[in-house]
Amino acid sequence: MIEYPVDQLPQLIDDLLQCDTTTRKNKLLADAKEKLSTEHLSLLFEALPKEQRLEIWQLLDEDTQHEIFINLGGDSCRWLLQSLEEAEGFKLLDEVSVEELLELEEIIPERFVDYARRQLDEVQTKQYDLAQQYNPEQLGHWLDFDALKVSEKLTVAGARKIFQKGLPQYTEVIYLVSRKGTLIGEVAINALFKANDNDSLLDYANLDVSALHADDDLYEAAEVVIHSEQMAMPVVNADNKLLGRLSVSSAYELRQEVTDEAAAKAGGLREDEDLFSSVTKSAKNRGIWLGINLATAFLASWFIGLFGATIEQVVALAVLMPVVASMGGIAGSQTLTVIVRGLALGQVTDSNRRALLKKELRVGALNGCVWAFVIGVLTYFWFNDGMLSLTITIAILLNLVAASLSGVVIPSILDKLKIDPALSGSVILTTVTDIVGFVTFLGLGSLLLL
């Protein structure tokens, strides 16, 4: 049997695209279903050009189709519904869970959402309605509804009968609730192994439970769970009624969403953009940031124009300008990446920002001294001009320090202004480092070389 571990996904894509027989494609897909997770099957599907997708889609069984559909990005999901017969699209929604529907309702047409809602049973409908009481930025909208909760009056024997039916994933405690559903406490499952059947669960309960609140920020709650060293944490409403839980698995998925979104925004892209989106849609998604970058480039060019006379007399300055700009841009981007990641994970605060700034300035100064010296020496041997070498040495040093400063200050200011630093930070930073580098280099050139 052909093995396709995750790191060999590109080979499987190549095999499918180069295969010219249905029998061989069925064999490849069967092996892929056995070896790959549903998430990677979805990535495989999205990696196929749209002309081949429907052909591969028809070779998949209904369960696999459903799993792939649920994990597709927004663009791919909408494209698939548009490409299939409407009856086939509705069929994909026959057995969606509440959690899946909450994710899909943000990206699929309203008629498909209405159809999926009608397929929910009574319990699922109540869960869906509960989630709708909170906006998508709040934890209550994305609850895990599989929390194991029992009456506070239950005995150990009663709990053991429940255990025999199986436990949800990431379950290490059972939650005790009152008749009205109020969270009373939690009992560690391993504490009941040697307990007497007639003992009350309350005898083994931890009554000081750390709980999340349904109106908490979703991503902040995820970080709390990750750092709690618990498999899951309960979620309550304002009346302390147990609504559900947030598992560590869901928390890590949410953290990954933040990372993916930041990476996409840093390039001026949408996180759910299809690899094979139409040319016009892709151009539209990216065009706005090309326009913004153009404006900042003209701003940097204007500053260069102020020193036109200097450049005309010392042509070597024009030759070396890209070196100054590149070094500052790279140094600033390195610092920016560290700070944006820290902000996303909640690690950068007002209390540690000053210490972080001092550290990054030291890094910038150290790298500035080392690389300014190296570039200065290379410039001297290239142009045999000591003053030109001194000019670029000072400019590189100052620009790397300014880049480190900007890499901390710019994302911090944007974060305070509620502007995503991952989206706009790199554009602003590049503009700042370019202007500082050019003005410093050309200004020093005017003073020292003319």
UniProtKB/TrEMBL annotation:
Domain of life, source organism: Bacteria
Localization terms from the record: Membrane
Membrane-protein topology: Multi-pass membrane protein
Chain ranges of the Magnesium transporter MgtE intracellular domain: 36-139
Swiss-Prot/TrEMBL keywords: Magnesium, Membrane, Transmembrane, Transmembrane helix, Transport
A Pfam family annotated for this UniProt entry: MgtE_N
Residues passing through the membrane, by range: 288-309, 315-340, 361-383, 389-414, 426-449
Similarity comment: Belongs to the SLC41A transporter family.
Protein name: Magnesium transporter
